[in-house]
Amino acid sequence: MSLHPIRYAALAFTLAAGCLASAAEAAPSAIARCEQASHDLLDALGRGDYAAAQALFAPALAVELPAARLQAMWEDTAARQGALRTAGRPHGGRVNGRSEVFIPLMFEKSTVTADVVCGADGRIGAFRLTPPRTP
Predict the structure, then answer these.
(1) What are the angstrom distances between the C-alpha of 124 and each of 3, 16, 38, 67?
(2) Whole-angstrom Cα distance, residue 29 to residue 134?
(3) CB of 114 within 8 A of CB of 106?
(4) Is the separation of the CB atoms in 123 and 40 below 8 Å?
(5) How much is the average pLDDT of 110-131?
(6) CB of 113 within 8 A of CB of 105?
(7) Higher model confidence: residue 43 or residue 91?
(8) Contact status, residue 126 vs residue 115, Cβ threshold 8 Å
(9) Which of the residues 2, 89, 108, 125 has an alpha carbon 20 to 30 A from that of 96?
(10) By the 8 A CB rule, do 79 and 68 touch?
(11) What b/e string do you get for 77-115 counting C-beta neighbours within 10 Å, with b at 16 or more?
(12) What confidence score (pLDDT) does residue 135 get?
């Protein structure tokens, strides 16, 4: 039994579309990659491994925020807010073609927000800690 050329083309298209859909489902989204980079960054900071944290940065941020300055920023936050107890669930979206993720960090005295912006390559292009608002 042979397939009619149109049916064969339709079958081939359906199989190809299924393979592409499976590949797309398997590839993490830009937001998911940024969330993972954020997790890796906070994990490295929590271990005190500032070189590993900085290695996640895009080249421009690595120059702007060297490991020593990153360490000072993280330790200054802990000195003012107390020990980090836990990180909340990340949330974010796409802004100007970049992924931005916000993670609430619950310290002993207050909650600080980690703001992580990633480029299309998944590397961290911006990182800041936003202190709690005071009334």
Answers:
(1) 51, 34, 8, 14
(2) 35
(3) no
(4) no
(5) 93
(6) yes
(7) 43
(8) yes
(9) 89
(10) no
(11) bbeebeebeebeebebeeeeeebbbbbebebeeeebebe
(12) 56
pLDDT value of position 5? 42
- Output the six-digit token pair for 34: 């940024």
Q: Rounded to an integer, what distance in angstroms lies between the CA atom of residue 28 and that of residue 99?
A: 13
Q: What is the CA radius of gyration of the chain?
A: 21
Looking at residue 27, what DSSP letter applies? Answer: S
Closest alpha carbon to 78 in 39, 49, 46: 46
- Residue whose token pair is 């931005």: 100
pLDDT value at position 3?
A: 46
CA distance 92 to 79: 27
